[in-house]
Amino acid sequence: MSSSLPHETELALFDALPDQGFHAVTAVLDGDAEPMVLYRDGDQVRAWLNVCPHAGRALDWAPGQFLKSREGHLVCAVHGASFELQHGTCVAGPCKGDSLRAVPVQVRDGRVLLGGV
Predict the structure, then answer these.
(1) 3-state DSSP call for residue 15?
(2) Per DSSP, which regions of 22-104 are E strands?
(3) d(Cα 66, Cα 59) in Å, to the nearest integer?
(4) 25 closest CA partner among 43, 45, 55
C-alpha cells in the first residue's frame, strides 16, 4: 500500500505577502491556468479567483494592483463593486449579494499552498 503525498502547488511565500494586502498569482485549477488574488490577514491567507461576478472582468486596475476602500473592502477597478474580505461577498455595487469564487489555500512551512488542510 503506497502512501504518497498529493502534489503541492506553492502559490507564494507567506512573508512576500503584505499584511492586510493583496497579491496576484496564477494557478492551474481544473486543468486551466486561473488568475487569483491572495489576501493576507495576520497569519491567515484567503484566496479568490481574480474575476468580478458582475461582468467577469479582472478585479485589479493594473496587473497585480488592487484597490482597497477606506472600509477595508476589495474594490473592482472596472465598475466599483466592493467585496468584504472575510468571505468575498459583494457588499456594494452592481453585483451586491454575489460573491467572489473562493479558492482553498493553506499556510504551511512559510509557504502559501493551493488546497485545504
Answers:
(1) helix
(2) 22-29, 32-41, 44-49, 67-68, 74-75, 82-83, 90-92
(3) 7
(4) 45
